Amino acid sequence: MQYRKMGKWGVKLSVVGLGSYLTIGFKLDLEASRATVRAARDAGINFFDTANAYNIGEGEKMLGQCLGEFPRSDVFVLTKVWAPMGKGPNDKGLSKKHIFEQCHASLKRLGMDYVDLYMCHRPDPDTPLEETVRAMEDLARMGKILYWGVSEWPAEMMVKANAVAREIGARGIGVNEPRYSLLYRHPETSVFPATIQEGIGNVIFSGLAHGMLTGKYRPGEAVPAQTRMAGDDTNMVLKAMYWNEENKKKVQEVVKLAEEMGTSCATLSLAWCLRHPAVTSTIIGATKVEQVQENAKAAELKIPDDVAKKLEELFPLPKSGAV
Ligand SMILES: NC(=O)c1ccc[n+]([C@@H]2O[C@H](COP(=O)([O-])OP(=O)(O)OC[C@H]3O[C@@H](n4cnc5c(N)ncnc54)[C@H](OP(=O)(O)O)[C@@H]3O)[C@@H](O)[C@H]2O)c1
Description:
The structure is a single chain. By secondary structure, this protein is α/β, with parallel strands linked by helices. It has a domain at 3-211 and 273-288: NADP-dependent oxidoreductase domain (TIM Barrel), CATH 3.20.20. The protein is built from eleven helices and ten strands. A hairpin with a 6-residue loop joins strand 1 (3-5) and strand 2 (12-14). It starts with a strand and ends in a 9-residue tail after the last helix.
């Protein structure tokens, strides 16, 4: 395993992290979840990602149980706040009230005294940035969180939040969590340059575009059983963002390139994400131990420049669109 500094900050994360969306505490029971977490630790993974909203707290509970068998100092745990956790007007968003209450609820579910990084899952236009920045600073001073971060915030909002933090003597953003893959290269345009300038790390999610970039969804063939695409409770994003014959065909070209290198399409696709200097870690999702092992190999795979060029020609930088 390789470890990288989280932007300008001192802490080092494994370049492959394990997430828990739709897997730990949802598709996977305790035994299967434990197996993936143990496989992750065996591969040298020290970074684990979850959120309060993953199966409304069940993801955190099960991840906490699985991590309980390891020394606390060996793992870096990230959880998030923002998504609705109830029906009340203050049961969502980034107000100080909701952040404070959910942080304590998350710690209880995880069975931990502190989380390593607490993240704003999305922006909240109803709350002034200063309120959110102060809430994070206060939690850090209380010893409940060590660092804080944001997910899918536009570049200019991160820069503004850091300026607010400097103004009020609070700590700035530690890490950003954007969607990033060969099939979603938008962060390269403005998010990555801004984070490099600000010293913010990036832990990227859906590096395999929900499994599309493994090559297992083949053009003209039926959806393999028991995959994310096969489940109506798991396939919404995949269907909406990536599911078309052109993508399936292009991914088969990645399969060929990977075979020529003696690796797999999944390993190659994740290793490509790690080539960008703004990226600290790629957070994988896994339903099987073998997936953890295959994906963790991305940490060691060096992609020759000519192969990277071919990949980037296959999946060019989008001209416009989402951040
Ligand atoms: N900040 C955010 O808003 C946000 C959003 C989404 C995710 N995340 C985090 O990022 C993590 C990863 O996201 P993601 O699950 O979308 O990542 P992903 O790596 O794009 O997709 C993971 C899924 O692909 C399949 N897969 C993974 N490795 C494979 C392999 N080697 N061979 C075949 N199939 C494989 C598995 O599903 P099947 O076996 O079921 O097909 C697995 O659950 C999440 O767990 C979560 O912690 C954060």
